[in-house]
Amino acid sequence: CSSDVPNEALDVIDHVTRRYEPGHSADLTLSGFYQKMLKRRTSGFVLELHDGTVASKQVGPEFHTPRVFIVRALDTFRVKSCIDFKVWDTEEYYLNIVKLIGCWSYVGQVFANGQNLSIGAGCESHGVVEHEILHALGFYHEQSRYDRDDYVDIVFNNIKTGQEHNFRKVGSDESSTHGTPYDYFSVMHYNKDAFTNGNGSTIITIDPKYQDVIGQRLDMSPLDVQELNLLYKCGKR
């Protein structure tokens, strides 16, 4: 595994400096994937789960405190959706959960033979782990919705150089909201000062009462869960 942060990944926490240490990893496999273009907050690489099963290796004790949050997050997906986890065997596509720099993931299935998802130092939060797993399952950021301009203003002049990609708007030709309303309470929404360069907030909510609401990392919101189940057609299984 590399300790370099890939340009295509989202959510790098830039103040985290802990580097990857050999052996500090756990593997989750998104087995059962079959190729199908999805339209949500998803990329063209996203594949739908064939049977709702995600294979995994056990999260090792080397994760220490983060292990608790990883296991708890995986259990939350089991309880709130049709997505389940099993022990990794020989699947070609799987997530490799590692301690790299910060917290980040690719959106959807991108690489065979192990796709890194970083839960590094500073990522010890149930909601943060959910956030990154949702990226791997195909979710973009809430503020990347194609209708976001009706709900938030992105202040690009206040975004730290090199982090602008975290705020890009994803068009309706690449994604779908599945008819759900904009969700200020989404675990996929950034907070008002995300990646600020120090000149002020990077996100301003059109309705000011939500300015201090966005960015919660307690748990998936009801709308997050609804969209996850719509995306994976959980009601039809």
UniProtKB/TrEMBL annotation:
Pfam family, one: Astacin
PANTHER family: DISCOIDIN, CUB, EGF, LAMININ , AND ZINC METALLOPROTEASE DOMAIN CONTAINING (PTHR10127), MEPRIN A SUBUNIT (PTHR10127:SF903)
Domain Peptidase M12A: 25-235
Any one Gene Ontology molecular-function term assigned to this protein's record: metalloendopeptidase activity
Entry's Gene Ontology BP terms: proteolysis
Annotated binding of Zn(2+), by residue: 131, 135, 141
Cofactor, how bound (note): Binds 1 zinc ion per subunit.
The EC number(s) this enzyme carries: 3.4.24.-
Signal peptide: none
Record carries keyword Signal: yes
Protein name: Metalloendopeptidase
Named cofactor requirement(s): Zn(2+)
Superkingdom in the source lineage: Eukaryota
Keywords: Disulfide bond, Glycoprotein, Hydrolase, Metal-binding, Metalloprotease, Protease, Signal, Zinc, Zymogen
Active site: 132
Key word Zinc present: yes
